[in-house]
Design brief:
The structure is a homodimer of 249-residue chains. Chain A is an alpha+beta fold. Chain A has two domains: 27-163, Jelly Rolls (Sandwich), CATH 2.60.120.10; 168-243, Orthogonal Bundle (Arc Repressor Mutant, subunit A), CATH 1.10.10. Helices cover 47% and strands 22% of the residues of chain A. At the A-B interface, helix 3, helix 4 and helix 5 of A face helix 3, helix 4 and helix 5 of B. Chain A binds a DNA duplex (30 and 30 nucleotides) through residues 4, 8, 168-170, 197-199, 207-211, 213-214, 217, 229.
Chain lengths: 249, 249
DNA sequence: CGGCTGATTGAAATGCATCAAACAAAGTGG
DNA sequence: CCACTTTGTTTGATGCATTTCAATCAGCCG
């Protein structure tokens, strides 16, 4: 009994370490977000940043919390979501290697209006607000690049508003699967590598978990996808694209 | 017969003038978007801009068109919308005095992904892309202000995604009415001054025109609002707020 | 093993869209 | 100035997609 408690305690400590200790010395120069920076700017950026490894399930920041900087994702996947009516979450985006998160509320100098949670073990760099402001102040190319990133995200948000307002859940699910395929790795046989619970999928599409389950098995019956637990394999891309009823592409 | 035709022709010409000719010499220094500009920057901005009066119904730019600059609204109201499935429009935002439009696609250097149409006679200033780039290049405070504006819009978009995915049409209609009340003038007796067709309201809420009509008359029966044609008067603000089921405020 | 979370299926309830028809208002043309 | 077309509004009836509730089952972990 005593030993058991000790083991738990040690695991707890190890977990703390995994979650919070700075690890690996990452050089941010290779990341697209910082490509307009000078040698000198990169040097001080690399000095001012802090890298942290996070385990799946860890929360990076919560809705309502005050942010001290933004994060650049070195590896892993993060879900960013808002908490709506009676705690139901709405997933706004999935962020992966090279993406930055938390910058929106930071720039607006408001409390975070989303929560970010690790869904695949990740390494994140924290960059202080001051560093960001300094870059905007000194480097117009960086400002422009930053503006373009925010604009790109705004465009996607506007498109998603249109989709969610006008499309059926069926169409939206097909679309989300295609988006996941385009934005995350697929292995040789077109199996999506990102692993989401049905509930997470539902919270991305904006529907009930049961609806996702039913629609996924319909898609399977229609030979559009194959299912192995959480792994989804796209076996009829044109068919799925047709179901998604895309306006563009 | 001849005279009548001539009269029509003259009206046509007058209309053309109203739609397209530069009018009034506006000074942009009073507009919040430009408040971080120096005297000198303002002077050249005022020189490079072009002001144009538009009549209700005029289209400023269309989805897919190439933009040469962005617009600052001096007066009037503009609706910005995307065209979705089989031509159904989804209104993304209403822009009014002091707001800027078309900047998103411009900064991303893409074709416009929305259409903008005048819904209340307006005066707009066109500011060339080059002028914008120059300001971003030379004035970091302006860049930061611009970033904050885009971020604010992104925040609203994310909130709307959550709403539209999780709330009922009834709740969303109430919310939209409250938003219109907060963002546009109301006269002394709480009548919304902005005049929208039922269809436009439907395209804002993301639902069918008939649903809006039914819900509006339910709201009227419930003594939340009063209707006089297109004029909507809010007579029970707390009640309407409750129906909207807001998470914040 | 027992408890927990996630997945699945069924049945019932419902919110909303769609279709159809009638009406009102406003602009057009002779 | 009156008939006519068009556009916007309204109401009713019907159908369906989706939600909700309930129950069961599978997998996982301590």
């Amino acid at each position: 009994m005593y030993l058991y408690g000790a083991k738990k305690f040690i695991l707890f400590i190890l977990n703390m370490k995994n979650n919070n200790e700075s690890t690996e010395d990452i050089n941010l120069s290779g990341f697209r977000f910082f490509k307009s920076l000078s040698e000198e700017e990169l040097k001080s950026l690399n000095f001012e940043k802090t890298c942290t490894a996070y385990k799946k399930g860890s929360i990076i920041y919560k809705e309502g919390s005050r942010l001290t900087g933004f994060y650049c994702i070195i590896r892993g996947i993060v879900k960013v979501y808002k908490t709506g009516i009676d705690g139901k979450e709405m997933i706004i985006r999935f962020a992966k290697k090279g993406d930055i998160i938390a910058y929106r509320s930071l720039l607006s100098q408001e409390s975070a209006c989303t929560t970010s949670k690790i869904i695949e073990d990740a390494l994140l760099c924290h960059i202080p607000y001051k560093t960001l402001l300094n870059l905007i102040e000194k480097n117009p190319s960086f400002s422009l690049a930053m503006l373009r990133i925010v604009c790109a995200e705004l465009k996607e948000a506007n498109e998603y508003i249109t989709d969610i307002a006008q499309k059926t859940v069926r169409e939206r699910l097909a679309e989300v699967l295609l988006l996941l395929k385009d934005n995350f790795d697929v292995d040789a046989d077109q199996t999506l590598q990102i692993s989401l619970t049905r509930e997470e999928l539902a919270n991305t599409v904006g529907t009930a978990t049961e609806s996702i389950i039913r629609l996924l098995s319909e898609f399977k019956q229609d030979k559009l996808i194959d299912l192995q637990g959480r792994k989804i394999k796209i076996i009829n891309l044109p068919g799925l694209t047709k179901v998604a009823n895309l306006t563009k592409y």
